[in-house]
Write a structure and sequence with these properties.
2 copies of one chain form a homodimer. Chain A is α/β, with parallel strands linked by helices and about 350 residues long. Chain A has 3 domains: about 50 residues, 434 Repressor (Amino-terminal Domain), CATH 1.10.260.40; about 130 residues, Rossmann fold; about 130 residues, 3-Layer(aba) Sandwich (Rossmann fold). Helix content of chain A is about 45%, strand content about 15%. Chain A contains 13 helices and 12 strands. The N and C termini of chain A lie far apart (about 100 Å). The interface between A and B is large, with 71 and 71 residues. Chain B binds a DNA duplex (30 and 30 nucleotides) through helix 2 and helix 4. Chains A, B: One of its GO terms (molecular function) is DNA-binding transcription factor activity.
Chain lengths: ~350, ~350
DNA sequence: GCGCGCCACTAGAGCGCGCTAGTGAAGCGA
DNA sequence: TCGCTTCACTAGCGCGCTCTAGTGGCGCGC
């Protein structure tokens, strides 16, 4: 029972593969210090050109890749931004795509976390924080405002596409009024008067769009034609709203302005199946101009948000908060503009 | 020019916010050791129920959240799986959604990295490795096989939806033959004989689907009708192929089998715009059954891959490699099946 | 010769955590 | 009383890296 040579319980190496090489391995290979290797990899002054070359060569030879986790831990700043998005939302996917370039430009690494049906936003956010995100970019978060506020007190947070009353976070979004206004102008200009709105319930952006629709209608003297149908930001929401319109006894409006593209596509679907001609009988307008709307087979008239700039502003806002150049709480709004495609046209006389 | 008091470039404290609490803070708050707090947070035996409660209470009070980077570093196993996907590919997004549940079940955390136009797969993969992913799940990677092989020698890799000759990685994908076979059977059953294929070039899965199409045609005695048009896995690819067909002097086939859904949607688009009736004049079939195909407005006949099982198998394969219960190199294939929707129908006599 | 600045490089202390090997107290049987 | 467990908890090393505060050598001016 010689307890000396108990096998040290090291089932630590997960794979049969050889251990990942570390900085120390590279240093040993060259007979220099780890610090030198570190310098070289961080592209800092203090190493001669020849040494740099030798270090890179040795690293390549050994297959050494810097370990982020250790780097993050050691460095005060992690330079990691956490991005929360909803996998199913094409507009979010567009945003994620657009966030990468600016993040890279400002020297940030991105960690993505998707909210999916089986994994709610709270969990997704926790994962981001756990992975040492310095700041969070939340694409259209649906969690309670106080939760976001709470998060904002812990670390810099930038919310995209949702209005908040008083959370200590930055907000980057589009003006809803001009967009909705343009939609209504466009439809009225085509001759529509019965313009309904399928709203997005309490989903990010929805209340504002609803309000903007109402205002726009009012300013066209169409206050009495305001017709708001409950919906949400999914295809199903649009489908249900369309079924409701078909079954209801108010008759079909000549145009429907949906709270987002997915909802609009749901409308489109049910209407076309029911033999309703788009846009002859009903014009449909969405919101977001997600890449799905652009699919020319769908060809949805919609409101384009300036995704690249939204993304850029969001990353810059996070960066500013991180650098402490200003306190959180800024609200940045961009113009959005109507993109006329095939689902809107003049109403036919009845 | 007193070089002494150069401001030491310490932009280390990123935010004006107070430092994130650590385990030591929690321990100090209670007057216990860090190890105890660690035990409690890892849900390990060795702490009394009352102590556990006190620890959690103190942690909540301070807003302590375990730091992944440190945890990863300290632990041999990081329990993180890196997932590479293409943001623009809806099928990939479906896969990512499906990967979460199994990963969680097996105790893995996920780090996502998107390949986007401005950021190629190499970079995306590097980020994953850097963030200490223990294993990689690559959704339809387009990088060179040798690069994947190289990666496979460094850490466990599971490739989804692409065939590889001899890389030391696991492969999880669908049988292409039965799927393509079903497509051709279906179309032939409807009365089609002129069935073209718009291929996906060298994109993951494309060569196999092309081959499977050819075989299926041959077995129906339609070898002489085999017509393969160059394309790729994007909408644009489909559009170009459709334009080619419209402009070419071979005439339109009565049915087109596209290498993936996006490509099929491109076809759909150009054809409908050109006034070609779908499916009366041309039937169109896609591949993947991504959620876009399911959008009932598109209503694409397509081949459904069993995404939930693909995802589950992929995570399990990664887990098995990590546990070292088998060497890499397994290939798992699942059945896929035809989903008949509205874009396929009997050809009209001409 | 000395002092000085500069350059290339190094020593070593942490970053926040996990984990092994303990420690001391209590309990228990003989 | 002693030996032996068990329980609740602690000390302290090490994960791979960054970063501050050096060290030694060399060239230069006086």
């Amino acid at each position: 029972m010689t307890p000396q040579n108990l096998r040290q319980g090291n089932d630590r190496s997960p794979a049969p593969r050889s251990r990942k090489p570390t900085m120390a391995d590279v240093a040993a290979e060259l007979g220099v210090s780890r610090a030198l290797v570190s310098l070289v990899f961080r592209d800092q002054p203090g190493a001669s050109p020849e040494t740099r070359e030798r270090v890179f060569a040795a690293a390549a030879r050994l297959g050494y890749k810097p370990d982020m986790a250790a780097r993050l831990l050691a460095r005060g700043r992690s330079k990691v931004l956490g991005v929360l998005f909803t996998a199913r939302n094409p507009h979010h996917v567009d945003l994620v795509e657009a966030i990468y370039p600016t993040a890279e430009e400002l020297g940030y690494d991105l960690v993505l976390s998707a909210a999916v049906p089986s994994r709610d936003e709270h969990k997704a956010i926790e994962a981001l924080v756990g992975h040492r995100s310095e700041a969070l970019l939340l694409c259209g978060p649906t969690i309670a405002e106080e939760d976001i506020a709470d998060l904002g007190t812990r670390l810099p947070v930038v919310v995209l596409g949702r209005h908040l009353k008083c959370a200590p976070v930055d907000i980057v979004t589009s003006y809803d009024r001009p967009g909705a206004r343009e939609v209504v102008d466009h439809l009225v200009g085509l001759g529509h008067r019965d313009i309904a709105h399928v709203d997005g319930g309490s989903k990010p952006g929805a209340p504002e769009r609803r309000r903007a629709y109402r205002d726009a209608m009012r300013s066209h003297g169409l206050a009495d034609r305001v017709r708001i149908l409950p919906g949400n930001h999914t295809e199903e929401g649009g489908q249900e709203a369309a079924r409701g319109m078909l079954a209801g006894d108010e008759g079909l409006p000549t145009a429907v302005f949906a709270s987002n593209d997915q909802c609009a596509i749901g409308l489109l679907d049910v209407f076309t199946r029911a033999g309703v001609k788009i846009p002859e009988q009903v014009s449909i307008v969405g919101y977001d101009d997600s890449h799905i709307a652009g699919l020319s087979h769908i060809d949805l008239t919609t409101v384009r948000q300036d995704v690249p700039r939204l993304a850029r502003l969001a990353v810059e806002a996070a960066d500013e908060q991180l650098r402490g150049v200003r306190d959180p709480g800024a609200t940045l709004k961009l113009e959005s503009k109507l993109v006329v495609r095939g689902t809107s046209g003049p109403p036919t006389q009845r």
